[in-house]
Structure of Fis family transcriptional regulator:
Amino acid sequence: MQDLLIEYKRALKDARKRYERFREKEDKQLSDQDKHDQKMIASMVSDLEYVVDWLQIGREPGARRGLDRRSVYQRTILANSEVLEALSHEYTLIQEKEREVSERDKKRIDEALSVLTDREKDVFFMHTTQGLSFSEIAIMLDVKKGTVQKHMERARTKMSKKVQERLFKAAE
């Protein structure tokens, strides 16, 4: 590790010398290529200083509080294997076997979806089947989050009404 630090310090010293050569010249004497080189070398100096600082102190330069300096309460994770095992059974998701949708159910689904506009269908499917959040959908469709929420509310309302109508027709 020390060898690496020494190499970076040598490179930093060399880069600073090259940068000083450009600074000694006046701006009028510098060609466009020289100005470009000066900017590149200044960037190199900055990057090398950052790396040397990182290697010397062992953490990111400028970080106010490294992970190793956090309070004991922030670093402590309370976990008892017996408790975790007991909780794992309680919160385990039950995997249902995938079942095939019958033709009758497909017709019902199509009928319920038929009352939706294309945009409402898009929002409904993105949210329910793909699990996207309203914010993610809003970004994808280039609309506001509130608009996505309204589309979802309308879709649910329309489908509920359609299902209720169907139930009343079936009861008659």
Residues 145-171 form the longest helix (27 residues). The chain has eight helices and no strands. The chain has a mean pLDDT of 80.
